Amino acid sequence: MAQEHLRDQLNYPFAAFVGNDLARKALKVAASSADIHSVLICGPKGTGKSVLARSMEDIAEGRKVVNLPLNSSEDQIFGGMSVEETLRKGRRVLSNNVLLRADGNILFVDDVNLLPDYVLNQVLNAAENGFHVVEREGISETYDCRFLFVATMDPEEGGISDHLLDRFDICVFLSTLEDEELRMTLCERCLSFQKDPEGFILSFAEETGRMRDEVTEARARARFTRVPEGYCAAISEVCNQLNVAGHRGDISVMNAACTLAALDGKDLANLDHLKDAAAMCLEHRRNNPPEQQQQPDQQPSEDPPDDREDEEPEEQQNDQQQDDQDRPPEEPDDQQEQRPPEEGDAEVPPPVDPDGMQEQVFDIGDVYKVVDYMPKENATLNQGVSGRRSGANIRDSAGKVIGYRIPKGKVSDIALCASIRASAPSQIYRDHSELAIVLKREDLREKVREKRQGNSILFLVDGSGSIGAQKRMVAVKGAILSMLKDAYQKRDRIGMAVFRMNTAEEVLPLTKSILKAYNVLQDIPTGGRTPLIHGLLKGYDILKGVDGKDSRPVMVILSDGRCNVAYTSGQKPVDEMLSTARSLSKTGIRFIVIDTEAGRMQFGLALELCRALDGTYLRLENLNAEYIECSVKYAIEG
Amino acid sequence: MNRPVFPFSAIVGQEDMKEALILNTINPLIGGVLIRGEKGTAKSTAVRALAGLLPEREVVLGCPCGCDPRVPGAMCPECQERRKEGELPSTAVPMSVVELPLSSTEDRVAGTLDIEAAITTGKKRFEPGVLAKANGNILYVDEINLLDDNIVDLLLDAAAMGVNYIEREGISYSHPSKFILVGTMNPEEGDLRPQLLDRFGMMVDVVSEKDEDRRTDIIERRMEFEKNPESFCKDYREQNAQIRENILKARELLKGIDAGRDVIRAAVRISLHLGVDGHRSDLTLIKAAEAYAAMQMRTEVYPSDVTHVAKLVMPHRMRRNPFQDSNLNSEELDAWLKSTFGTN
Hints:
The complex is a heterodimer.
Chain A: H1 21-32, E1 38-42, H2 49-54, H3 56-59, E2 65-67, H4 74-78, H5 83-89, H6 98-102, E3 106-109, H7 117-129, E4 131-136, E5 139-144, E6 148-153, H8 162-167, E7 170-173, H9 180-195, H10 197-203, H11 205-221, H12 231-241, H13 248-263, H14 271-282, H15 290-294, H16 319-338, H17 354-357, E8 360-361, H18 373-376, E9 390-394, E10 400-405, H19 416-427, E11 446-462, H20 465-469, H21 472-490, E12 493-500, E13 503-511, H22 514-522, E14 525-526, H23 532-543, E15 551-559, H24 573-584, E16 590-595, H25 605-613, E17 616-619, H26 625-637
Parallel strand pairs in A: 1-6, 1-7, 2-3, 3-6, 11-12, 11-15, 15-16, 16-17
Antiparallel strand pairs in A: 4-5, 8-14, 9-11, 10-11, 12-13
Helix pairs in contact in A: 1-11, 1-13, 5-19, 9-10, 11-13, 12-13, 13-14, 21-22, 23-24, 24-25
Chain B: H1 15-26, E1 33-37, H2 43-50, E2 56-60, H3 77-84, E3 90-94, E4 97-99, H4 106-110, E5 112-113, H5 115-121, E6 126-127, H6 130-133, E7 138-141, H7 149-161, E8 163-168, E9 171-176, E10 180-185, H8 194-199, E11 202-206, H9 212-227, H10 229-235, H11 237-255, H12 261-274, H13 280-295, H14 303-313, H15 328-341
Helix pairs in contact in B: 1-2, 9-10, 11-13, 12-13, 12-14, 13-14, 14-15
């Protein structure tokens, strides 16, 4: 029972692949070099990543592609005990596992970003070392596994962490072809392959054979090719310029350049080889990708936020105009806000100001990257499978089985296979009059499951006049949108509640539909007083229904903390707010307070609120990508 | 299980959905349909009714994976073994609709170790799961957007390669799993993962019927069906048979259809204009156009066929930004198609 029988399944020929020349060249390099162990093929869906990877059999003579399915169990990948053999012999025997089968072949993983990090790490280790050490189920063995690791991923589903990315010797990017003629050729070839695979493969047989010979020759030659003297320094310089961390990049470039030269039938690499090699080996290791360099760095700023608060792209053009509009209404408002809100007690509403009480709907401010998800996905905190923020081992019969353990107490979720394996060595000594396998209590194992937990994030938005008057709402909406985008990638559930006037209102029940959230966000009105306590209680009301097992409740509060409406009459609003907050801090909800306070006089009430909630505190001004990434992640996973 | 199913031909309206389903049965390579819409718009009814129209296919007798005897390269290990001993016995069975319930567990979907066999005989044996049953059939997932992520990963893997690889519980096994994926979802309950969305060849949005007369029709037919399902089905038997025959004829015709350069160019232009990711859309447009031509009982494909099917093939691919409603572009697409190709 193995995969070999499907080897005769027909693959689209490598030689017939259209476009993306650098990627094809890179795969040839990988097939020709003994020092390149891993290749990552990135690209949007439908660009032929898997097709290209699987077609490598064509050019790598004598090697076949071994599949590593995403849902493989660890013992099956790295080796565990072979039940049948162990039963027969009465001593533990290593099972035939995926890595063992990959020895001398090509190991292929589709959508590698969905593979658990710890598995990927071990596979990369094995690829680099050429051997693997098994220490599990009483088996202690070291076996050889020299293979070329080929993986594909679509960054849209979340990336892999930087340090894992760095482990890939070569990373190539496939892109959608933009040239009409090329694309037509591609279509024609694909269609004729589907109609008549044998005939199509035959029509490319000559070309395939030529490429295979090229690779075979290069493989022999690559050992003797060199890089000219001065090139080493050049490689180091390029790596420095691109801000490449570590030295894996340098080494990979050298190896790739030598192999490229060998493919060309040369003994010495030239500048073109070096350029190509750098493109293959360094793009995924550079620390500031080109699209980021073009953007102005959004650094956390110590400046008074007045002139930064609504930093939107349009602002650049009508700077002057906006300034004129901004100033006048801000003056009276600032004065009003300078009075500490404690004095503005519950009974007396703040002086009516036209900007505050009037309902207004603001645009959505500048959107920034909350998580630079392609290479920056956090790994150390994310033990679960990428694409989700929180992973938790749970004792529950739902979720993906990731392993098993010796149970404590009563066994409910029994891992039958693991139990059988545990019992296998002693079966030979047991009474088999009725069953072929006899299990005893000490053999029993239970399943360890992991449910990929999402978060239920409730955005609690201050819709009061003070936010509106200072156009803080534009920035607030920008912040929410940035977080929404992030939630979309992480597939969190999100909801939104707004507090203003005298009450709080759930404007968006918890949902996974980000589109809906976006529509709601656009229409959030502002104006009126700040009933923060109502907001907190509303938020609690919404989140308390969230089952902590399926999803973790998170409340993101965007406010300046200037609560001026009491929930219970007779109470001082701020005191009541803080005591409510202290009670809420024990509910298991995680709080993130984003302080929107601006202006010359600041009271720091949001900070106090945050302390009472035992939450994470952020200032709106500091909400740039880097900062929020760390903080939000810390708050959620920390 | 002989529960009567509401006949396909008795479904009022929802022409796009019906067309998409039929085109997929004519050419399974189109890659399935995602049906989006509010509740109570005959989504599930249509998919279940489709079972009554499906043509027969050849399978190896007694194979749990439903291997196709004509493709020796893609057979399960048992069939491979049996083949060495001589000609495989085969039989014709109707294609079926295999449902994947939301509550399915990973081992039931992918297949797992046959525990009973392991304990009583001490031998490892593979027990096939839903992905094996779905081979050669329609795999139907109701509310696919609510499916657990780990199950979605399984589907993605199988859909990408047409093979289900299992490496778990001491079992290393693989079997063919080529299916037409049909999913329904209510977009209000959440989005679909982009990778899964892209696996669907077509997407249709269904809305409830607005026309008063037709709404009355719907209610009347449904009530009639519920009162006396057998006689209701009988009434529509002939119409159903007609559709089925057309599908069979179209499948025959399709074998002789070859898209010319003008058709391919039209498909490529549409994809380029809409700036969709990847090249899947081009191919799907062409295959769908061929199937549509066959459905019209033609042996020639025209660029107008491509523009006709574009409304089914393109909408879910146009969505690059999660904050854009894909429907917004639908009219724009129509207008552009008209101005560029002059037909439609």
